[in-house]
Amino acid sequence: MQGCVGRCAPARSGRARAVPVFCAARLSFFGRFSTGPNVPYNKYGFRQVSSPMTASAGSATVAQKLVGVAGGVDFKGVHHVALLCQNLERSLEFYQGVLGLEINPERPHSKLPYRGAWLWIGPEMIHLMELPNPDPMSGRPEHGGRDRHFCVGVAAVDPLVAKLEAAGVPYTKSMSGRPAVFFRDPDMNCLECVEMEAWR
Fold it and tell me: Which CATH class is domain 80-195?
């Protein structure tokens, strides 16, 4: 590929092949970064540069350009969190029966090619989607704070803990000492609930 800097990597046939690492032709947005012969490759096969990334003379740094691009975005907040589930009825039994969430009837699911449901969780929503889950069900960290999770504010943690204990749902407390608990749904999706005042 013209304009690309590559390195040699062993191919399956035993011969060395060039692996594209850096393509100057595709850096019109980010500028041309310094990639001298002494710049090492990281484990993903890309050259590492000092942070913040430096550009050649006449080009802005990545940080400068990204500030200009993101500066005009008026973020309003998180609209919903999408969760995969194996069995919609089982998930609804957990989210409605244990947590007490209500379905949003204004978000029908008939237009989508898979089963699902939208549930209110405060001013935001959880979107349950009955689809194959690529994540493993076993071998996940016992403490959800060490796994992918999303956090929801609650007025008080104790009523939630009482519901979890009554339903036999395992949970762990925040390791930082905050009034927060972590727990998982039937598909091992992890939720964190932290005690806080409403922000909307």
Answer: alpha beta
